[in-house]
Write a structure and sequence with these properties.
Elements lengths: L5 H34 L1 H22 L4 E9 L6 E4 L1 H19 L13 E4 L5 E9 L5 H57 L1
Antiparallel strand pairs: 1-4, 2-3
Helix pairs in contact: 1-4, 2-4
Length: 199
């Protein structure tokens, strides 16, 4: 049976211990990173902006669909300004003269009405009802196409900004954690050197 040199055995055991310690520390580091990402207000704002951009894309796509609108309107007006036009005062004497002339030229011809009333109309419509049903379908509208493309590019831009910020935040949290571990190791070295110096 082949024997391993003691230095190789110590090296293997220390590497196993180091890898186990590193795995524990990386799990702690990942927990810190996830906590930092979930509690960062700027990242939450970017998530909200990303959802808004997704909604804008959905709305820009919905503009390609047909639309049906139903509009009903009823107006009732009392009082207000009125227009008075003396139609009866102007036309009734003319019709009376025409009737006399027709009686002389053609007896028994139909008479023109001589009782046309004067007009006294208000400006606002009174008892007015309007109902409209309109259907629209965009056959060709390049603005809709370009609007959708713009919204998609904005979404891609916001998504890239969010990913870059998330990576930067991960880097900062990892760097801070490693600096913390470095400070702990420096303190241990200082404590060990202090005990060595006191002996």
């Amino acid at each position: 049976m082949k024997q391993f040199p003691p230095s190789l055995l110590i090296l293997l055991l220390s590497s196993f211990c180091f890898s186990e310690t590193y795995a524990q520390k990386s799990a702690i580091l990942e927990q810190y990173v996830q906590t930092g990402l979930s509690n960062n207000l700027a990242l939450q704002q970017q998530n909200l902006d990303l959802r808004k951009a997704q909604e804008a894309i959905r709305q820009s796509k919905s503009l390609f669909y047909p639309s049906l609108k139903f509009e009903a309107n009823y107006t009732r007006a009392t009082g207000g300004r009125r227009i008075q036009f003396p139609v009866g005062d102007l036309i009734n004497p003319i019709y009376a003269n025409l009737n006399e002339l027709n009686e002389l030229v053609q007896p028994g011809a139909p008479d023109y009405p001589t009782n046309v009333p004067n007009v006294n109309e208000q400006f606002l419509p009174d008892d007015f009802h309007e109902t409209k049903l309109s259907f629209a379908y965009p056959l060709f509208n390049s603005d809709l196409k370009y609007n959708r493309q713009i919204q998609e590019h904005l979404y891609e831009s916001k998504s890239a900004q969010k990913a870059a910020y998330e990576q930067q935040l991960r880097y900062q949290i990892t760097e801070a954690y490693l600096l913390y571990l470095q400070a702990l190791e420096a303190e241990k070295i200082w404590q060990n050197s202090k005990t060595v110096l006191t002996e």
